[in-house]
Each structure stands twice: as structure tokens, then as C-alpha cells.
Amino acid sequence: MKNRKPPPFRTRTVDLDILAIGARGDGLAKFDGEQVFVPLTAPGDRIVARLEGRRADGFTASMAELVTPGPTRRDAPCPLFGQCGGCNLQHITDEALTDWKRERLVTALTRVEFDSRLIAPLVSIAPGTRRRAAFAFTRLAKGVVIGFNERASRHIVEVDPCLLLAPALLALLAPLRTLLTEILPTGTTGDALTTLTDSGIDLVIQTEHELDLFAREKLASFAEAQDLARLSWQKGDLAEPVAHRRPAQVTMGEVSVDIPPGGFLQPSREGEAALVALVKEYLPAQGAILDLYAGSGSFTFPLAKGRAVTAVEGDAAAIGALGAAARRVGLAITAVHRDLARQPLLAHELKPFAAVIFDPPRAGAAAQAEQIAKGGPATVVAVSCNPATLARDAATLADAGYKLIKATPVDQFPWSAHLEAVAVFQR
Question: Global pTM?
């Protein structure tokens, strides 16, 4: 018997009460016993909603009419709210959003049986401080459109103003739009990666368009006119520096590091400082430190005063930058290039260290956490950008006898569902 296709989803309008905010920032309601996810709504809102489709855990919907606003709803401060996909929680009061973000970490950790009393208040980083951003662009017949994508869409919203970005990044958009209009043919798409370093903006333009001599000259003139530190053109995996006017340097623990084009950094200097302070709080006074997923050294250099640090990172360019800076200033830092997802440090390799720090991507550090559980040092500090994978890795440590001492949520992404945290474990 042939499998029959399910009937097409029938859109319809329903009355809903928004009960809470979900993990992705959507309002949650109930309909026919199932969850409904409604973007841009707040707890307590009474709305008319249009059911638009299904997903594995319920219905998707959009708000057709706000009948009665909930007590935590406010007017969004940005005029582009609801169009730009960069922020989806500006309509929630600051107090309610602070409570919700901390509760995300509480929920994740108590689900694996950690005590909620060990979770500290949220550390919030102010908007207007973000030093890196990836802008999408497309060349239309009338010129280039550059900005952020709409929610779940490839349509680009030109972001002016943007309340998140450092002013220098926002000021670059207008001249960059003019430049790309002059050198790109209609139909070209790509991304512009911008990083505000201590020595100026590092710009990487990612697109499949080939550069010719005219475009190279235009790019060099643009870098000069805008006083960029470096401008690179990336087609495929390789970023080619077109104008390298001076090193793109970022100070980490009083050491200037020449970061690679488009290299990862914490979103803001203020956020990085907050994370470093939390990491250092419970480290032992003496003994060697192991910094896993070290990037270009955000934690490595602040920890390297008077002690040995081994930094391990899978990105060759990032760990190369870290190692070069350490050699230049004569610090006792060992830089190791190693893919920790495929080749975690084994339990016997962890023996020389007094403490381990790990700061993995969103997928977490499952394989490495298992090795730390088998033979890690007395103190382990986990830095995470995903409460769910942090909870999973924390449970692995707890099963091996580690106790959670303190977990602190850190909000470097105002008005979004993203959340970072620093969790300290000892045994």
C-alpha cells in the first residue's frame, strides 16, 4: 500500500493567550492541546493569530492583532523592530527579559539536577558595544542593499539605525554600499564581516565574484579613505588581504594579538572582560592552566601572568596568532593546534594541570567533557554559549564527582534569545 501524503496545512485564524517565552524567543500558547509558537509576542498578550504551519513540536503562527497587551510588553526602542531579524525581544521590558534569560540557565541546569541556588544573577552587557557583525548584501539593478536578514528570510533590511553596534561599524555601511555598487555586477550576493579592532576596522568581503584590477584599485582606495586596518576578499575558504595597512590588533590581557581576517572574538570588549573576571574568580593561585578551545587567546593571555598556560585550538589561523603573540612578549604559553571535537585531550594528558577551562562552540564539548570526567584536575571552568549543551556537559562532570560551585549567566546579545554562561566545578 502506498504511503499517502498528509493533507496540506489549512491556515486559519484563532484567539490565543500567550503563556510564556520559548527558548528561541517566540511567545508560547496552546491550541488543541499543542504548543503554538508566535514571534514578537509577550507573556500575558491576548492576540488574534494566524496558524501558518506545523513543526515537530507544535504549530507556527503569526500575530494578526494584539487584543490586550501583557504586563511585560513595551514599545520597542528600535524603529526596525519586527522587520530586522537581528533582535526579536525588544518588546519585552528590561526587568522581565533579565528574569527570562537567567531562567533559561536555571531551567537547563535544574533539568539535570543542579541546585538553582548556585546560579548567580545575570550579568548584562549594554547595547551599542558590539564590535563585530556580519552584514548580508545583494547587488540589485538599483544598487547594493546591505544589512541584516529578516527573520527566517533572505530579504535584507538596511539597518540604520542599529542600537546594538558600535558606532564605527554602523558608519561604515553607507560608504561600503557605494563601493560594492561600483564593483559588483547585478545579482551578486555575499557577506561583509566587520570587526572593530584596537587598530581599526578589519573588513572581510565574502562573495563568489572574481576580483579584477579595477575592483582591486577601488578596494585599496576605499581602505585608505575609511582608514581600515585591513580589507580582505574571500572567495571560497581563503581570505586574500587586498589592503593590509596595519596589523588588525586586539589587546588580550595587556598583549596585542594580530588576529586573522574575520577571526573570532567575543562580541564586545565589555563582555570579554566580564567573562575573563568570572573565569579567574575560582582558579587556584598556582599551577599550570589548560585553556581548551582557546581561539586567539581571550582567556589565555589574562591568565598567563606568572604561570604556564597551554592553549589548544582547532582553528589554525587563530592558534597561530596566539602563538606568535606569546613568543613576541616571552610569555610561558604553549600553543597547540588540535581539533578537540575529533581528538580531545585524553585523561592522562590532563594530569599536569591545576585547572582546565573550556569554551566550545554551540555544540558543546561532549567528547572533551568525558575525558575531563575521567582524569581532569580539581578545578574546571566551563564557558558556554548554549545552556542546553552546557547542562549536558555539566551532567557528565557531575556523574564523575565534580560539584557545581557557581554558574553565572552573561548576556552579550541584548534583545535576543542567545545566552552565555560561566560555570565553575570542583572535586
Answer: 0.94
Could you give the count of Cα atoms lying within 13 Å of 385 in the half-sphere of its Cβ? 14
- Closest by CA to 91, choosing from 418, 419, 416, is 416
Peptide bond into 161 cis (omega under 30): yes
Q: pLDDT tens digits, residue range 85-122?
A: 989 999 999 999 999 999 999 999 999 999 999 999 99
Domains of the chain: 12-73 (2.40.50.140), 97-126+265-426 (3.40.50.150), 132-244 (2.40.50.1070)
* Angle between helices 366-375 and 387-399 in degrees, nearest 10: 20
Tens-place pLDDT, residues 130-184: 999 999 999 999 999 999 999 878 899 999 889 999 999 999 999 999 999 999 9
Q: Where are the beta strands (DSSP E) in 87-245?
A: 123-124, 132-140, 143-149, 156-157, 189-197, 200-207, 230-235, 238-244
How is residue 57 written as a grid cell? Answer: 513540536
What positions carry a catalytic annotation? 385
Q: How far is CA 245 from CA 41, 200, 231, 252, 320, in A?
A: 47, 10, 8, 21, 20
Residues 380-391 pLDDT 10s: 999 999 999 999
Phi-psi region of 374 (alpha: psi -120 to 50; beta: other; left: phi over 0): alpha
How far is Cα 138 from Cα 352, in angstroms, rounded to an integer?
52
Strands annotated E in 56-151: 58-68, 123-124, 132-140, 143-149
Tell me how far apart the alpha carbons of residues 50 and 62 are, in angstroms, rounded to a whole number. Answer: 5
